[in-house]
Amino acid sequence: EPLFEGYIETLRREAECVEADSGRLASELNHVQEVMEGYKKKYEEEVALRTTAENEFVVLKKDIDCAYLRKADLEANVEALR
């Protein structure tokens, strides 16, 4: 009987340690999930900014192409007039 009581007491202490670790790990998990959500939100914002920048780039490239063609036309007209 004393042998079993010692064994039971040891198991109780181990159970208490496991419970304490469980609480600590749950808290740590919540913290990591909050950090992950923050990074996820920032990533989504960056993706949106990238899309906007790419769209602006396409528009600017079209404008530059038009301006270059117009410049070439004007230069051709100048040469024709000379």
From TrEMBL:
- PROSITE patterns in the cross-refs: IF_ROD_2
Looking at the record, the residues that make up the IF rod domain are 1-82
Which keywords are on file for this protein?
A: Coiled coil, Intermediate filament, Keratin
Might you name a Gene Ontology BP term for this protein?
Answer: keratinization
Q: Which domain of life is it from?
A: Eukaryota
Q: Name one GO molecular function term.
A: structural constituent of skin epidermis
Q: Which InterPro entries match?
A: IF_rod_dom, Keratin_II
Record's GO cellular component terms: cytoplasm; extracellular space; keratin filament
Keyword Coiled coil appears in the UniProt entry: yes
Its name, as the record gives it, is: IF rod domain-containing protein
> Native species of this protein?
Mustela putorius furo (European domestic ferret)
